[in-house]
Amino acid sequence: MSESPKRLKKKNLSNKEKKGKLLFQSPKGMRDILPDERPYWDKIEKAGRETADFYNFLRIDTPLVEFSEIFERAVGGATDIIEKQMYYIKSRGKDRLALRPEGTAGIVRAYLEHGLSKTAQPLKLYYFGPMFRYESPQFGRYRQFYQFGFEILGDKDDPIYDAQIVLAGFRLLEELKIKNLNIEINSLGCKNCRSNYRKKLQDYYKKNQNKICRDCKRRLSLNPLRLLDCKNEDCQQIKSKAPVMLDHLCSSCKNHFRGVLEYLDELGLPYSLNPYLVRGLDYYNRTVFEFSAENYGISLGGGGRYDDLAVMLGAKHSLPACGSSLGIERVIEVMKNQGIAGLTKGRVKVFLAQIGQPAKKRAFRLIEEFGKAGIKIMESFGKESLKSQLKIADKENIGIALILGQKEVFEENIILRDMKSGAQETVPLNKIVEAVKRRLK
Ligand code: AMP
Fold it and tell me: Can you give the pTM of this predicted structure?
């Protein structure tokens, strides 16, 4: 005997459905940006665009998806991002693709692919968009998060570009009126001096091998610089006595770093040296930095120089380049903490009320006529009574209400009501846009 449709339906209900709970939520670590948060995003985008414009950065948008090998080569096989956090994509083809965990690798890929070295150098680019990392979601840490980033590619490895990249990110934060900003900065040296230092670091950690965490034991042979990044308390203690890169820079890297600091001094930017700052991506050489705000424990953004990244992606020659990026969710959190408002849109100043079907139809068209004149109209098509519509206008503090009833449509008129005084006048429909314009002036 076949089951009745009713019985089948009941059987297929999940436990959640049976309990009347929501069947779907957004994936863990990924959030909806609801309209009430939008003013913060608008403010950051606007300030970001203006900052980028001022320093002549051009917008670039690369795909959210790249060949995974790009990230594996660029970010580095022995980093958390590659080992634990990549979103690999199962597609119908055989391509090994991944959601981008960061923006720089895709931009260097685009630079090489489109021969952008033939344009005026250095090429200054900026981007804004979502990144994806399979992290453990916690305060300020999501699986989908947005970054606003700046990159300077090509020309020479002049320290002034490092300083300008720091400056662009810093100015954007300043533009947003974020207070008590600090920049932590360090140099990771070049391949030569770093390999020397890496050896010293390994020797030091080998002597303390029994005091470090399991992850660090692995890092010790795979990627010793990452040892300095460990958040484990015991490892932090060991780190505090570890040799520092700054004492092992070759003379050319030392001069380069001094140059960067001198340019920052020239502008009076507030920085402090952090000899243990290494950042979570392997492509950096020489300058690395992070932005922070007082009383906010995690970094708001960071970046550094990455002259070897192009070669990692198959280029014949190295490409002098540096970049910085800001984590937008964290910037918003600090803005909220510091009482900084988002971008407020211009208030709607005119409300259009309609009574009856012919009026509703005419109102629908009239809004377009106002639109052409650049005047925003609020309406409430779902409401039928005049009283309830005017109540909304009142609540929204709107100064002018236009009232269109059956009689007015028939006589091609409309009532203009001053919401404050209650005074009303009848205006020919074909003159109403002009009449409102005059009043708004
Ligand atoms: P990174 O790309 O790792 O250099 O990070 C640059 C900035 O992006 C950080 O300073 C954060 O502000 C932000 N960021 C990185 N990972 C996350 C995440 N999982 N959730 C939110 N923001 C993040």
Answer: 0.90
DSSP symbol at 204: H
The alpha carbon of 131 and the centre of ligand 1 are apart by a number of angstroms equal to 9
Atom of ligand 1 nearest to the CA of 147: 8
Query: What value does the CA radius of gyration of the chain take, rounded to a whole number of Å?
Result: 29
Atom 13, ligand 1: which residue's CA is nearest?
327
The beta-strand segments (E) located in 71-215 are 88-89, 97-99, 123-132, 144-153, 181-187
Asked whether residue 296 falls in the same domain as residue 354, the answer is no
pLDDT in tens, 212-251: 998 899 888 888 998 998 888 999 999 999 999 999 999 9
- Give the domain extent around 355: 350-440
Encode pLDDT of 370-425 as tens digits.
Answer: 999 999 999 999 998 999 999 999 999 999 999 999 999 999 999 999 999 999 99
The CATH code of the domain that includes 90 is 3.30.930.10
From the CB of 133, is ligand 1 less than 6 Å away?
A: yes
Nearest to 404 by CA among 421, 420, 380: 380
Say whether both 314 and 359 belong to one domain: no
- Establish if 389 belongs to a structural domain: yes
